[in-house]
Design a protein that fits this description.
The structure holds 2 protein chains of 2 kinds.
Chain A lengths: L3 E12 L2 E12 L3 E5 L6 H9 L6 E6 L5 E4 L13 H6 L5 H10 L15 H14 L4 E5 L7 H18 L2 E5 L3 H4 L5 E6 L1 E6 L1 H5 L2 H19 L11 H10 L3
Parallel strand pairs in A: 3-7, 3-8, 5-6, 6-7
Antiparallel strand pairs in A: 1-2, 1-4, 8-9
Helix pairs in contact in A: 3-4, 4-5
Chain B lengths: L2 H26 L3 H21 L3 H22 L4 H22 L7 H6 L7 H20 L1 H9 L1 H6 L4 H23 L4 H13 L5 H26 L3 H22 L1
Helix pairs in contact in B: 1-6, 1-9, 1-10, 1-11, 2-3, 2-4, 2-9, 3-4, 3-9, 6-9, 10-11, 10-12, 11-12
The chains are: A alpha/beta, B mainly alpha.
Chain lengths: 253, 261
């Protein structure tokens, strides 16, 4: 099933003398969902930007395969409210027809918002609009930087499921940045745990048992346990389960 | 109608036509302070132009352009926030311009007209320059419209989709410097940003697409020039500030209309 979409060899990057990425080598495969996890400041976003070609590494090589078509879903988007822009028009910036835009919006379940101003969309709707714009380019490689940011937990599950289905339907490789391994576990083929260097990688179950992972995410793993148990009264002494889980799961920078 | 009034009107309309769409980008990209900084540096452009005996039209466009490129460089080095950086450069440029002008051996420069515009002294040669520059700016804006909108909405997404973001951004700075150079004659360095922002902000309330907003802003800016010149003629007020006052009045009117609707 898989041929490499993009290959990184010995990539290094430093900002102001401080090393952010240290000797990163990896291959991203067609038809495979790879999740990149790591604590804040681990260099996740920097790595994504290097893979996208938005910034150049200090050393090392990034080799995209011939015919690589990237669909990108950025972490955040701020559009000034003075810019009159409908959701449909926002999608058309990706260089496509009116018809294709409506189709893509239907596909991500927000067809009814085509003529709404993009600034009026909720957090989850914006993420879907971004996803729609990414798939419009008929990509064979989707790069999603924290795709469920600002989305409530139910919405997060739905969004992850949609990403899984879309990537299968388009037969594309996916690189996803996430803080929350628990939620993406089932949808992920491979996890890369990053903390300036690649600490460990492999299948999700395998990675969660890796000592390097536990060293970094020991505490976070306990949070996952809370999420498992949040229906029970284990957590009652802190906050109501839903609010607490949302705060931890979002983990904004 | 006397010739000088006709020239003033034509010059004002030419500048207003391009100030509309460019002003939209200034509003959308929150570049108001940036525009102010470039406008202030145009005064330095006049001073240096006189000092070095270069064609003023060239130096007035070149100094803001260099300023813009310098700003990009300083911002990327990340020493200070853009806001602070603009504050420093904006006022330093204005002050340096004023100092250099005062040091010029024979004072051939009328400071008030530089600061607030001198619409009624427009000559036929000025008109040629204004219309040539306005045509170039309009051409660039039309040519780069789609990528400009795209980088305004989300620059990284635009880059991944194949747009040369830094080239488009540099082009927008060039356009801004050019418009400042021709708008200086009309409203002066202190009021240029007003001519860019106010018509665009007024147009926002009656537009549903970016293109509509750009066209409406153009129309409003041109209407503003006509109203401002009439006011200046009737009440014997300075032309540049009169144009800006009319722009502000139209903006306030648009607020009232909106509230009713």
């Amino acid at each position: 099933m898989s041929s490499p979409l993009i290959t990184l060899k010995g990539v290094n990057k430093a900002f102001g003398g401080r090393s952010v990425l240290d000797n990163i080598s990896m291959q991203l495969m067609q038809g495979e969902i790879t999740t990149l996890i790591g604590p804040n400041g681990a260099g996740k976003s920097t790595l994504v930007r290097i893979i996208l070609g938005l910034i150049q590494p200090d050393s090392g090589t990034v080799s995209p395969s011939a015919g690589l078509r990237v669909g990108y879903m950025p972490q955040k988007m701020h559009i000034d409210p003075t810019l009159p822009l409908t959701t449909c028009r926002f999608l058309q910036l990706a260089n496509t027809s009116h018809h294709a835009c409506h189709e893509a919006l239907e596909r991500v379940g927000i067809g009814h918002l085509a003529t709404s101003p993009i600034q009026s969309l909720s957090g989850g709707e914006v993420q879907r609009a971004l996803l729609a714009r990414a798939i419009l380019r008929k990509p064979n490689f989707l790069v999603l930087d924290e795709p469920v940011q600002g989305v409530d937990v139910t919405g997060q599950n739905a969004l992850y499921r949609m990403i899984g289905e879309l990537s299968k339907a388009l037969n594309c490789g996916v690189l996803m940045v996430s803080h929350d391994l628990h939620l993406v576990m089932s949808a992920t083929d491979r996890v890369i745990c990053l903390n300036q260097h690649i600490c460990c990688q492999g299948h999700p179950e395998q990675v969660t048992q890796d000592q390097a992972y536990i060293d970094i995410f020991g505490q976070t793993t306990a949070v996952y346990a809370h999420q498992h148990d949040h229906h029970h009264s284990l957590h009652g002494d802190v906050l109501d389960g839903h609010n607490h889980q949302h705060g931890e799961g979002c983990n904004h920078d | 109608m006397t010739d000088f009034l006709l020239y003033a009107l034509l010059a004002g309309l030419g500048v207003a036509a391009v100030a509309g769409p460019l002003g939209c980008f200034v509003v959308w990209r929150r570049m108001a302070y940036f525009g102010d900084t470039l406008a202030h540096s145009a005064l330095l452009g006049v001073a240096l132009g006189v000092l070095l005996e270069v064609n003023l039209s060239i130096s007035v466009a070149a100094v803001p352009l260099l300023m813009a490129l310098g700003l990009v460089y300083l911002e990327q080095r990340g020493i200070l926030s853009l806001d602070t950086l603009l504050g420093i450069l904006s006022h330093s440029a204005l002050a340096t311009g004023l100092v250099v002008i005062s040091l010029l051996p024979d004072v051939r420069v009328d400071l008030i007209s530089l600061l607030f515009g001198d619409l009624l002294s427009v000559t036929v040669d000025d008109l040629y320059v204004i219309y040539a520059v306005a045509a170039a700016v309009l051409g660039l804006l039309i040519l780069l419209w789609k990528p400009l909108i795209s980088i305004t909405v989300q620059a990284e997404l635009a880059a991944v989709e194949g747009i040369k973001v830094s080239a488009v951004r540099t082009a927008l700075m060039l356009i801004t410097a050019l418009v400042i150079a021709i708008a200086m004659k009309i409203v002066g360095v202190l009021l240029i940003t007003a001519l860019l922002i106010i018509p665009a902000a007024t147009a926002r309330r009656m537009s549903r697409t970016p293109e509509q907003m750009a066209l409406v802003a153009s129309a409003i800016a041109m209407l503003t020039v006509v109203l401002g010149l009439s006011m200046s003629w009737q009440l014997d007020t300075p032309a540049g500030p009169s144009v800006v006052v009319c722009a502000a009045l139209l903006f306030m009117l648009s607020l009232v209309v909106r509230q009713r609707g």
